[in-house]
Amino acid sequence: MQNLGVEVLFEGSNMERLLGGLLVTIKISFISIALGAILGLFMGLLRTLPIKVLQIILRVYLEVFRIIPILVWLYVVYFGFTPLFDIHISGEVTAILVFSLWGAAEIGDIVRGALESMPKHQKDSAKALGLSSGQIYRYILIPQAVRRMLPGSINLATRMVKTTSLVVLIGVIEVVKIGQQIIELGVIKAPSASFWVYGFIFILYFLVCYPLSVISRRFERRWQN
């Protein structure tokens, strides 16, 4: 019987290794998303303040992360900081640091856009009722802004999950790297191993990202009603 190649997924501990690599991908992704969301919310609030110097600094910070590819950031932090500051930074820590800063920049802009899209009369009415600036943000602006920034935030989260595949280039052993190792060992015996291994990795990424889209749609429908 012809070897279909799918057997390579179940040989030895290959399946266990792939799932272990997926856990590394999930850990890097979700820690980065959480840290990026916290920092991004704070940056977004700062970007609504009428302080010109602060706006320029935060705008430059955002553009730097948008213009320079994430792969270059990974290389700069992982290979550049080590000799420059004589410190060792692991690949996983590098990935979490870079992805968190990227997420903070993007989420900060999403928060700014959502807050600035709020009708001005709501803020004026709240002031007329005697609410402080902190209370206006806490009870009126932020709860409404969260609804508006949810689609963009979910989109960014899925992009961050998918972009973690780049961390293999700084030596992190995650699901793509383990997939490459399995293919290299099994390609002679099963020439179609790359199809099955990468196909399985495709399904794993889909299973991680699809629930985020489902949750986003449910929240949107709930808040529309």
Automatic annotation (TrEMBL):
Residues 22-216 form the ABC transmembrane type-1 domain. InterPro entries: AA_ABC_transptr_permease_3TM, ArtM/GltK/GlnP/TcyL/YhdX-like, MetI-like, MetI-like_sf. This is Amino acid ABC transporter permease. Pfam families: BPD_transp_1 (PF00528). PANTHER family: ABC TRANSPORTER MEMBRANE-SPANNING PERMEASE-GLUTAMINE TRANSPORT, MEMBRANE COMPONENT OF AMINO ACID ABC TRANSPORTER. One of its GO terms (biological process) is amino acid transport. CDD domains: TM_PBP2 (cd06261). It comes from the Bacteria. The chain crosses the membrane at residues 20-46, 58-81, 93-115, 166-183, 195-215. The keyword Transit peptide does not apply. SUPFAM superfamilies: MetI-like. Keywords: Cell membrane, Membrane, Transmembrane, Transmembrane helix, Transport. It is found in: Cell membrane. One of its GO terms (molecular function) is transmembrane transporter activity. Belongs to the binding-protein-dependent transport system permease family. It is a multi-pass membrane protein. It comes from Paenibacillus lentus. GO terms for cellular component: ATP-binding cassette (ABC) transporter complex.
